[in-house]
Design brief:
This protein has 166 residues and is mainly alpha-helical. The chain is 43% helix and 9% strand. It contains six helices and three strands. Strands 2-1-3 form a three-stranded parallel beta sheet. β1, α3 and β2 form a beta-alpha-beta unit. The protein is globular, with a radius of gyration of 20 Å.
Length: 166
């Protein structure tokens, strides 16, 4: 796996994922280098039906096959670290949460990636070392099963919880 292939794979895949290909700095040389390698290995926890749409679009646009491996955060970290310890890292692109990015960054596995689309991100969401670029923000909420809670009980529980600062 060459550095050109890694950079090409990351740039190409993130461009497709973020639907901002007009901002990506993808050169014909990067595409050619990735094509010579034959495929892009992508690890991530996205559902298969979503990845299929992304990889189909990527393959159609660039003519480079994408090999997807799906696992949860722990499985991704374990697989990448095992490959690295064996001296045979396979993945080109990893899409993981903060825990995955931190675990891999601590082991020195992540390369620098500063996509042009991220230049407009608020500074607090940018990694100063440019190895852990966020590409989405996930909302989290408190949800209650209406069949388990009596009317009004949820409101009281939420009010009690709102008194505490986490």
């Amino acid at each position: 796996m060459t550095i050109v292939r890694v950079l090409a794979a990351i740039s190409l895949f993130i461009a497709v994922v973020t639907i901002q290909t007009t901002h990506a700095q993808i050169t014909p040389q990067m595409v050619d280098a990735a094509k010579k390698e034959g495929e892009v290995a992508f690890y991530g926890a996205l559902p298969v039906n979503i990845v299929k749409r992304i990889t189909d679009a990527f393959e159609k646009k660039y003519g480079i096959a994408v090999k997807h491996w799906r696992g949860d955060a722990t499985e991704i970290v374990n697989r990448v670290l095992t490959e690295a310890r064996a001296g045979r890292p396979i993945f080109d692109v990893n899409l993981g949460n903060e825990a995955v990015m931190q675990a891999l960054d601590e082991k020195g596995i992540l390369g620098v990636f500063d996509p042009p689309a991220a230049k407009g991100y608020p500074q607090q969401f940018r990694d100063p070392d440019m190895r852990m670029t966020a590409w989405r923000v996930l909302p989290y909420g408190i949800n209650y099963n209406q069949t388990w809670h009596q009317a009004g009980a949820v409101g009281r529980m939420f009010t009690i919880g709102a008194k505490y600062t986490f």
